[in-house]
Each structure stands twice: as C-alpha cells, then as structure tokens.
Amino acid sequence: MDSMKSLVLLALAAVAASAQPLYQGELIFPLEKIHNHSSSVVELPNGDLLVCWFHGSGERTADDTLINAARWIKRTGKWTAPFVLADTPGFPETNPTLFIDSKQRLFLFWPVIIAHQWETALMKYRISTDYQQESGPPKWSHQDNVLLIPKNILEKTKEVFGKDAEGTGKEAEHAKRQIEKAGDMYFSRMGWFTRTHAQELPSGRILLPMYSDGYSYGIMGISDDGGYTWTASEPLVGNGNIQPSVVRKKDGTLVAYMRDNGPPPKRAHMSTSKDDGVSWTPAHDTEILNPGTSLEAIVLKNGHWIMVYNDLESKRHSLVAAISDDEGATWKWRRHLDGRPDKPINSEFHYPSVMQAKDGAIHVTYSYFVPDGKSIKHVRINEDWVKAGDQ
C-alpha cells in the first residue's frame, strides 16, 4: 500500500513539475562575423536534436554560402561543433528545412541559387535512413530536385489581379507584370523554394510549403509517393504573401500563414485549403503584425496552436511566441523570446523554426544577430511559460 501511495505521489509530482513554466536557451555556436541565417530544427527518434542553417559571406550573391548543421546530443546535453550538411561549390545555398516522416526518414530540402537572383532558385532534397550517429552528416540514400509546374497559375493570377490590370497607374502596372510573368512558362517553373517545415497529412501526403520572390506568391510541393515524385498545388496568390507556414484544423482545413512582402498595412497573410493543399483561397491580411519576415506556426499535441513571429511593422528586434486555443481565431497568450516591440535595439531575432518534442517541450531556433556577431539561438519552452506572459 505504501509503495502504491509512493508511486501515486511520484506521478503527481511529475505532473506538477511538467506544468511549471519552462525556459532554457543558448547559442548553438559562438557569435561569428560571417552570415548565419534561416535555421530548421527537428527531434530525432533517439531524442537528439538536429538543426541546420545557411552559412557564408552573404545570401543569394555569395558563392561560398553553404548549409551547416549541428546536433544536440541527449546523452551529453551539449551541441556538437557545426559541420557541413550540403555544399554545391560555386553556388549560394540558402533556406534549408528538415523533416522526419512517419517512416522515420530524414529529409533535407534546400535551394541552390543558380544566377544570383532568388527567382533562379533550384530546389534540391535528400533522404536518409541512417542519421542518428553523434557526429557528422547523415548518410544519404536518395537525392533529387523538386521541379514544379504550378497548377492554374495564370488563371489564379488573373482572378486576383485581372481587374487591377484594366486600370492605370502603379497598381495596374504591377498587375499587368504579374499576369505577364504567370504566362511565362520558364519563369513560372523556376524560383520556388523553402523556408518552413514540411508536414505529412493523415492521408500520407507530404506537403512542402514553398514560395517565389519573383511573384511574391506561396505554393505547395505535393508528394503522394513518400517524397520520390512531386507535383505543385495552385499558387497562393495575393499582394506579397511568401514563406507559408501551414497548420491543419481538426476539420481538415489547412491554414497557411505568410510573411507580408507587400505594401502596408504590414500584417501576416492567410490562405486556406479544403482539399489537402491542392487549391487555395486568395491570400488576405490578418491582424497579426509582420514586418516582412518569416514566421512559423505548428499544432501542438493538445490541439493548441503556437506561432513565433516578429510582432512589429518594421525591423526585427522583437520575437514573440503566441498560443491559440481556438485554432487561430484568437491568440490569447503571448511572451517574448527576445527583445520587445517598444524597445528598439540594434539587433535582430528572426526566422524562427518551431517543433514540439516527444516529451511535450517546444523547441524554437532562430537567427540571432547582435552587434558582436551572428549565431543561431535555441530555446526550449512550454505552454505554461508562454501563458505566464512577459515578466
């Protein structure tokens, strides 16, 4: 009886401990003067973490830019030194994203920038089943390109911009250019690339959120055969909506939140799909502030949503985590991971990558730019920490 009582008390203590606000944070590697940006984090089946980002002297015009990675080893509780995950000599490589599917295969997606312009991005990807060693890169078993033919891109562009194209002035000229580009076969098939996590839908479909800076549209890469062949969704068309992050409602509706790459007001854009990501509504502004920078939202195990984003209309000195318990209708709880919107500083905390581990902890990695250098920061939090609000 006493042993049973002890077990019950231990269980209650564990539950109580798990309900306490949790925050742990550290830089994955020391600050560097070189550019380190756009990370992606996943938990491996053995409980280790794998994070990747791009590293070099710049972005699309810097031919030394490659994909770096580091591992957090559960056994030691420490990060390894960074190592090269992918490098195409002579070409810049940016915006990598990691994904582990239901078969526990690790995917790496990343674009190679062919001609120093974002619209010349060529998407590459690799698959590994042997990746849980404590040092060095995974052993890759498959590599290919993600080539897309956007579905109904001209029709969707005309649907959104056709009326404006009939007028005069700057808006009309922009609308005409969008329609002209949508009718260009080469332009419409090049330049789509990643930023946020892929996900596997209940149907088994893999959905890979992508976007084009040439159009300022989002799109979805779709695979129904485990990632070996890819087709394109319809584009997510609007006035400057890129870098989609997708969450799935309980009724199956997909919601894509996107960076605002267009004119004021600076707000995150949103589009929805009711057919597993093939067709999407025209993108529209939400009430979520966005200064033209990446955000990510995920569905937590309890059905709540978390979004990490810059709660500003300009600059990137404030990064917040927000929780919704009503599938994005409201975001009742917020807490800042770094910075504050009302305290401008000469630093940037941006491009978050978000995932929830098997133990329930929420992991966020993000670009950490301060006057002394650049790194990727990792934080481990829980809902209770966010709900406690700024202290």
Task: Give a brief outline of the structure.
This protein is mainly beta and about 400 residues long. The chain has helices spanning about 1-20, 155-165, 170-180, 185-190, 385, and strands at about 25, 35-45, 50-55, 65-75, 80, 85, 95-100, 105-115, 120-130, 140-145, 190-195, 200, 205-210, 215-225, 230, 240-250, 255-260, 265-275, 285-290, 295-300, 305-310, 320-325, 335-340, 350-355, 360-370, 375-380.
CATH topology of the domain at 147-290: Neuraminidase
Q: How many helical stretches?
A: 5
What is the averaged pLDDT score?
95
Percent of residues in helices: 10-25%
Shape: globular
The CATH class of the domain at 147-290 is Mainly Beta
The parts where pLDDT drops under 50 for at least 5 residues are: 3-17
N-C termini distance: 43 Å
Number of strands: 26
Q: So, CATH architecture of the domain at 147-290?
A: 6 Propeller
Q: Which structural class fits the helix and strand makeup?
A: mainly beta
Please state the CA-atom Rg, rounded to the nearest Å: 21 Å
How would you characterize the largest beta sheet?
Answer: 5 strands, antiparallel
Strand content range: 35-45%
